[in-house]
């Protein structure tokens, strides 16, 4: 009973903080919704309102050229009372989604997969945080809170990804694939998480499927994902009564027609680009993004959960429309690897860089857009710093895990300094 | 490169290197201050120049003279008649004058509430539609009925009326000209600009008539009848934002080059171009920028990216109101030439004379150095908090230094020592983080308190708060020791996080409001050296006294004493700034500086838990 009470206390406190922010500062949700760090063209709550308006007036939501989100969000949000008149229902929905994500995260933490997977057990695995601490670190992370208040639809993707992982560690591969399909359907890029996720499912499969080979397992899951995605897309085409949504949602993610600034690296690059090179570099950027999947999955075959963690981090930097919501997902997964933290070397540096960028980003955006005394380079410079901080963190975490693995084979090297020869 | 990086943690253990940061951070402060003092020298500051070629200042002949002087005298007499009249009556009359000149006139009522007081009035304005334009751009000529000091702006208003009539006769305007007469110099302009951009609060009327995007605004503040000697230019905006330097250069070039009238800044009535005068001008400018208040009616325009200045004639000389009119005529002709918004020249500068300035690239390092001093200490304390502090490790680390390469080879000696040295001790950072973040959130309390207390209670609330403020950190510290009994490491981490946040906030702030960041950084500098000295009561007492002198409340008290103002007055002004102008200085004071100070005091009052019998740890200087 005691356990449930702690969980309830954390969730209750998280919900209370969010409700307090929603109600005590009525201007805050709209302020954060307009921030480019939180809302991107493919997740913005404002654009969702626009799409919803068109949808409710029987116009195709994609006609305005503003709405680029999945069609299934429209009937979902039409069920709620309008957020302009009764905003509290929307608030409650977003709070609920955050809590569901935290719940999934707790299940992942409780499984102990981070410390000891099927093929690898870390010698340091006992040094870990409780699932409560991990859930609290996610729920009280300022980035998560800001995301919740800003209400981008990326929280649904986050929630779906975390559920996919939590189902995978429980061995429920079918449900996991369903959750992944929903995430992929909402934002497309999570489909890249499939390889490590299916391996995680395979490692964690129940005794009934013990005899199944990797190939048949994977092909079964591929079929499942394709099936789910097909039915979701078919459903969407029924909702919007045409297939044009494909172009307006996934097409926008792939081809980047909307160059609104965000915390990522793509927008500035493609503003500066000559049109003749555009397609080439779109290909390069996408190949770069997806190339991490294969490499990390193979190298870290023994720890698929860590591959998933790394990939969420990589996506937070390199995907076309990233926001701090993606960072908050990465920062939610990272504490699962508490046991390798002592091996990390630049945590303080990386976190300070991220914090600095968090403060300087809005300041420079203000100088550029409002005060007029700066220009786009100011903000882009800070997004570079932000990405640098995140990549240091990712690289450092990867180093720590690899070193942890290495020391299993070379116990005499524990605690020694590495050097490049 | 990566070899160098990987030996980073070897460097971390180097005891000699660990001695450096405190001195380094002191050096940063010293250089930061010295840097600022060097700026007025010829080698570091530059002469101003016009960047925007379209402006062509002083290239046109001015025709405002002759019979217009009689018009001015007529208006002057009419304005004199209105001295005792109410705001509405004055505006009726002004509206009549503008209409007689053939302009479209409108009015706007406003009402602000702040610190339990109401500020209300009515603005009147007239729009001259550009004969050669399409109403997409406009320039504003503003004369407030009363100036910042509350004096009646007699000649100023009369001059606006005369110029309105005079400008109407010309067919060369390609931008609309708006003649605005506000009821006062503080709330009126803000109400008008807010309404012009449709961002006005409740209680302020929308503008019935509008024109295009504002390209610039010039304010006349001419409250006396006699002739003047030269022009005082006021340029500071709200929150330390400044107008484009080109606007100021244009006016200076026209006044001194074309008309032969001197220009002065920052109430430096005499400027001998000496080092001392330059420095004083610069420091006064920094003080105005740091306070972030409105220094004139023009200040309200600047947050909207409308470059604006106030012109105040001063002194006894032979220049008459017609000369002032010609300066404005020529300035408007220059602004009329603009093809795009002023953007060429600097937005960040410190002026040391009307024709000498330093740009951001030259002065920013001084504030950044002061901010970086905190970051250096934060990193240092973080590294130190991870290092084990037993005597064993000292011996071992000297061993290791004999040859870094040998580490790998001494494989058989692996068992005991290395793990202890190289593995960092675990940091318990939840409590420190909670203390630091908590104190930052606590800053909302004084912020709310001082912005929402009625004026009469402000002084008493302030004094109660000042007293509580000095006791409160000790209470928190006692509570902290009772309930958590923090270790030495945790105290180090509290300080590390607090300094990290302070450094971070200040360096971000330096890009927005350099002067405020520099001032706060300087006042908070002793916090770098504060820690708990459990066995040294004298040092502790000295530090407590020093910090009590540098707490925001004492500084506020001292500065209001220095400027001969009541504390209540200063706080009322601050609350007014918060409610009306959207001033943010309070946020910096209460949510950045004050929390850092509280954490500093908590450390002074702290007693680290005794883990080892040796007390020598406390004596380590940092």
Could you describe the 3D structure shown?
- The complex is a heterodimer of chains A (421) and B (622).
- In chain A, 67% of the residues lie in helices and 0% in strands.
- Chain A has 421 residues and is mostly helical.
- Chain B folds into two domains: 53-354, 3-Layer(aba) Sandwich (Aminopeptidase), CATH 3.40.630.10; 428-605, no CATH class.
- Helix content of chain B is 53%, strand content 12%.
- Chain B has helices at 2-6, 8-12, 15-38, 67-81, 87-100, 154-169, 187-196, 245-259, 275-291, 321-337, 360-386, 391-401, 406-409, 417-422, 430-442, 444-452, 458-483, 488-512, 514-524, 537-549, 552-562, 567-581, 585-605, and strands spanning 46-47, 104-114, 117-128, 137-142, 176-181, 213-220, 228-234, 262-265, 308-319, 349-353, 356-359.
- Chain B has an eight-stranded mixed sheet with strand order 2-3-5-4-6-9-7-8, sandwiched between helices. Chain B has a three-stranded antiparallel sheet with strand order 1-11-10.
- The two termini of chain B are 30 Å apart.
- Chain A binds chain B through residues 342, 345, 348-349, 352, 355-356, 359-360, 363-364, 366-367, 370-373, 412-420, and chain B through 2-3, 6-10, 241, 303, 305, 341, 343, 347-348, 375, 378-379, 382, 404, 407-408, 411, 414, 418-419, 421-424, 426, 500, 504-505, 507-509, 511-512.
- Chain B: InterPro entries: Gaa1 (IPR007246).
- Chain B: This is Gaa1-like protein.
- Chain B: The chain crosses the membrane at residues 20-41, 360-383, 429-449, 461-481, 501-530, 542-563, 583-605.
Question: What's the short version?
Answer:
In chain A, 67% of the residues lie in helices and 0% in strands.
């Amino acid at each position: 009973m005691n356990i449930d009470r702690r969980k309830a206390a954390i969730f209750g406190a998280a919900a209370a903080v969010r409700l307090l922010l929603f109600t005590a500062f009525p201007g805050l949700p709209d302020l954060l919704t307009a921030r480019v760090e939180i809302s991107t063209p493919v997740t913005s709550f404002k654009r969702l309102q626009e799409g919803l308006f068109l949808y409710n007036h029987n116009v195709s939501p994609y006609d305005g050229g503003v709405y680029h989100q999945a069609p299934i969000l429209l009937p979902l949000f039409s069920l709620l009372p309008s957020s302009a008149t009764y905003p509290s229902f929307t608030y409650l929905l977003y709070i609920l989604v955050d809590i569901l994500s935290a719940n999934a995260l707790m299940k992942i933490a409780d499984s102990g997969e981070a410390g000891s997977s099927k093929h690898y057990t870390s010698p340091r695995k006992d040094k870990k945080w409780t699932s409560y601490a991990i859930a609290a670190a996610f729920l009280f992370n300022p980035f998560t809170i800001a995301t919740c208040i800003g209400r981008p639809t990326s929280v649904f993707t986050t929630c779906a990804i975390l559920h996919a992982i939590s189902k995978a560690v429980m061995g429920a591969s079918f449900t996991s694939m369903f959750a992944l399909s929903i995430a992929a359907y909402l934002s497309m890029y999570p489909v890249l998480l499939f390889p490590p996720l299916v391996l995680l499912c395979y490692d964690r499969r129940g005794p009934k499927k013990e005899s199944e080979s990797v190939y048949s397992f994977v092909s079964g899951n591929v079929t499942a994902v394709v099936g789910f995605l097909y039915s979701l897309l078919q459903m969407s085409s029924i909702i919007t009564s045409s297939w044009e949504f494909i172009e307006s949602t996934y097409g926008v993610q792939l081809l980047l027609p909307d160059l609104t600034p965000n915390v990522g690296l793509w927008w500035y690059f493609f503003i500066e680009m000559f049109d003749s090179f555009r397609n080439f570099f779109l290909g390069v950027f996408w190949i770069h993004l997806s190339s991490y999947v294969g490499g990390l999955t193979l190298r870290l075959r023994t720890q698929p959960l860590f591959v998933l963690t790394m990939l969420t981090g990589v996506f937070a930097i390199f995907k076309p429309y990233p926001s701090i919501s993606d960072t908050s997902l990465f920062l939610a997964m990272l504490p699962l690897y508490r046991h390798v933290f002592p091996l990390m070397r630049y945590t303080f540096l990386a976190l300070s860089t991220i914090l600095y960028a968090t403060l300087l980003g809005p300041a420079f955006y203000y100088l550029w857009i409002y005060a007029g005394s700066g220009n786009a380079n100011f903000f882009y410079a800070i997004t570079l710093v932000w990405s640098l901080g995140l990549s240091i963190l990712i690289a450092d975490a990867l180093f720590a895990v690899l070193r942890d693995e290495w020391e299993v084979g070379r116990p005499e090297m524990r605690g020694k300094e590495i050097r490049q020869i | 490169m990566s070899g160098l990086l990987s030996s980073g943690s070897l460097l971390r253990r180097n005891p000699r290197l660990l001695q450096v940061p405190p001195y380094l951070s002191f050096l940063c402060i010293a250089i930061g201050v010295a840097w600022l003092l060097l700026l007025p020298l010829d080698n570091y500051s530059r002469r101003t120049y016009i960047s925007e070629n379209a402006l062509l200042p002083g290239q046109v002949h001015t025709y405002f003279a002759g019979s217009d002087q009689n018009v001015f005298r007529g208006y002057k007499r009419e304005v004199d008649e209105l001295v005792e009249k109410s705001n509405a009556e004055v505006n009726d009359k002004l509206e009549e004058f503008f209409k007689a000149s053939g302009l479209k006139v409108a009015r706007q009522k406003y009402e602000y509430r702040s610190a339990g007081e109401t500020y209300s009035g009515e603005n009147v304005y007239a729009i001259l539609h550009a004969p050669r334009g399409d109403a997409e751009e406009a320039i504003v000529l503003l004369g407030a009925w009363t100036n910042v000091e509350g004096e009646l702006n007699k000649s100023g208003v009369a001059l606006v009326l005369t110029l309105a009539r005079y400008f109407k006769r010309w067919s060369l305007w390609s931008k609309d000209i708006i003649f605005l007469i506000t009821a006062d110099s503080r709330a009126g302009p803000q109400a008008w600009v807010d309404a012009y951009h449709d961002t006005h609060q409740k209680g302020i009327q929308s503008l019935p008539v509008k024109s295009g995007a504002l390209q610039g605004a010039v304010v006349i503040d001419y409250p006396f009848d006699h002739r003047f000697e030269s022009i005082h230019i006021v340029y500071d905006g709200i929150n330390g934002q400044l107008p484009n330097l080109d606007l100021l250069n244009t006016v200076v070039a026209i006044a001194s080059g074309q008309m032969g009238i001197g220009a002065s800044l920052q109430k430096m009535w005499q400027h001998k171009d000496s080092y001392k005068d330059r420095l004083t001008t610069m420091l006064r400018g920094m003080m105005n920028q740091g306070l972030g208040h409105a220094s004139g009616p023009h200040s309200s325009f600047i947050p909207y990216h409308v470059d604006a200045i106030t012109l105040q004639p001063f002194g006894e000389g032979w220049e008459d109101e017609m000369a002032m009119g010609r300066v404005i005529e020529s300035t408007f002709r220059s602004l009329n030439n603009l093809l795009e918004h002023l953007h060429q020249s600097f937005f960040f500068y410190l002026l040391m004379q009307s024709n000498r300035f330093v740009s951001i690239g030259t002065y920013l390092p001084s504030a950044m150095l002061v901010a970086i001093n905190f970051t250096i200490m934060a990193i240092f304390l973080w590294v130190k908090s991870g290092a084990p502090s037993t005597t064993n490790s000292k011996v071992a680390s000297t061993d290791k230094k004999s040859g870094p390469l040998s580490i790998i080879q001494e494989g058989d000696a692996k068992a005991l020592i290395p793990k202890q040295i190289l593995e960092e001790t675990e940091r318990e950072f939840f409590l420190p983080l909670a203390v630091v973040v908590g104190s930052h959130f606590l800053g909302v309390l004084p912020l709310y308190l001082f912005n929402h207390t009625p004026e009469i209670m402000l002084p008493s609330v302030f004094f109660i708060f000042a007293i509580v403020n000095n006791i409160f950190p000790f209470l928190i510290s006692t509570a902290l020791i009772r309930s958590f009994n923090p270790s030495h490491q945790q105290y180090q981490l509290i300080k590390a996080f607090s300094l990290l946040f302070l450094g971070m906030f200040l360096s971000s702030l330096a890009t927005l409001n350099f002067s405020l960041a520099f001032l706060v950084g300087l006042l908070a500098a002793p916090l770098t050296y504060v820690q708990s000295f459990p066995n040294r009561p004298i040092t502790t007492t000295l530090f407590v006294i020093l910090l009590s002198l540098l707490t925001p409340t004492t500084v506020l008290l001292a500065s209001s004493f220095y400027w001969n103002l009541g504390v209540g007055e200063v706080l009322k002004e601050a609350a007014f700034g918060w409610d009306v102008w959207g001033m943010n200085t309070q946020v910096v004071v209460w949510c950045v500086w004050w929390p850092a100070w509280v954490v500093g005091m908590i450390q002074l009052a702290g007693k680290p838990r005794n883990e080892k019998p040796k007390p020598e740890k406390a004596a380590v200087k940092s």
